Amino acid sequence: MKKPLKYLPAVFILAMLLPACSQKEKNASSIPHLRKQGETIQLVVENKPFIVLGGELGNSSFTSLEYMEPIWPKLTAMNLNTILAPVYWELIEPKEGQFDFKLYERLVNKARDHHLKLILLWFGSWKNSMSSHAPAWVKNDQERFPRVKDDKGKSHEILTPFSENNLNADLKAFQALLNYIKKIDNEHTIIMIQPENEIGMLPAARDYHPLANEKFQADVPVEFLSYLRENKGNLVPEFRDVWAKNGYKETGNWEEIFGKGPHTDEIFMAWYYAKFTDAIAEAGKAIYPLPMFVNAALNRPGRLPGSGYPSAGP
Asked: Are 172 and 179 contacting, i.e. CB atoms less than 8 angstroms apart?
């Protein structure tokens, strides 16, 4: 069932962008990029500041030329200059290692015909927490591509971020997507990319897969602790309070440093979801350094992570 268009202000997008490409990369070509202007950050497209007047398509719309046919004139009538459109992993890699971009090439050409820019949403390992758009060859091999387990030991349709196999499969597909964009998009129709979508752990606050349990019992990564120490005065107050309550410890596992409870489970998952997604984004930027951003499913006051909202999202 298709959803109606949703407006997505440019402010929302720019506020959540991951680091922009280097100055060397910006000067090498007119690839869309970010530029600091005074105290703000501008999106630059074709060497000019670009304000996104964007609408997000329904999830199923961008999977067919026929679906999109009646939508193009509506987008034009709304005076949009950009549409946010999903790219499904399962559609571009139906068989492992065999990539098919014919559909997306036609859709990109249609967007050009209607003078619209595209922001692609990568529905890879996760879409609204679930792994619903991973290919069948991933879903059907849970031994090779393990899923999260809740606190009762039950598996769910969510790929665990603690598996190297899961990461490498997603990463290769994302690299193929960026190689495709680099090859066909001399007109810079595609201006940004969102790796993954509304990441978060359900229905528990953290993953209890053996791979996750091993990490949870291990020492908190030095990289994370170094950041906390160097930015102690600038941390979000609620987060700093959690660390302070346990004495600002800098050695030990997750519960030894942050205490026991769903708050620690969420901190733990946030770190490893972020490491996974950052690896995906970095691999893509090494090929074609478009601006990239993440999005979050919003929390509601009083709800617990995992059971009440997707734990550890952006």
From this structure: no
| Euclidean distance between CA atoms 26 and 19, whole angstroms | 13
pLDDT for residue 7 is more than 60: no
Q: Strands of 48-49's sheet, edge to edge?
A: 33-37, 40-45, 48-49
pLDDT in tens, 29-73: 589 999 998 999 999 999 999 999 999 999 889 999 999 999 999
Amino acid occupying residue 114: H
* Mutual angle of helices 262-287 and 164-184, in 10-degree steps: 40
- The tokens 């967007």 sit on which residue? 111
DSSP per residue over the chain, as a string? -PPPPEEEEHHHHHHTBPPPPPHHHHHHS---EEEEETTEEEEEETTEE---EEEEPPTTGGG-HHHHTTHHHHHHHTT-SEEEEEEEHHHH-SBTTB---HHHHHHHHHHHHTT-EEEEEEEEEEETTB-TTS-HHHHT-TTTS-EEE-TTS-EEEEE-TT-HHHHHHHHHHHHHHHHHHHHH-TT--EEEEEEEES--B-SSSS--SHHHHHHHHSBPPHHHHHHHHHTGGGS-HHHHHHHHHTT---SSBHHHHH-SSHHHHHHHHHHHHHHHHHHHHHHHHHHS---BB---PPP-TTPPBTTTB-BT--
Give the chain's mean pLDDT: 90
Reported as a single tens digit per residue, the pLDDT across 245-293 is: 989 999 999 999 999 999 999 999 999 999 999 999 999 999 999 999 9
Return the number of other C-beta atoms located less than 10 Å from residue 260's C-beta: 11
Q: What are phi and psi of 99, to 5 degrees?
A: -105, 140
pLDDT reading at 9 higher than 60: no
Residue from 206, 199, 198, 203 nearest 263 by CA: 206
Question: The tokens of 73 are what?
Answer: 């004139």
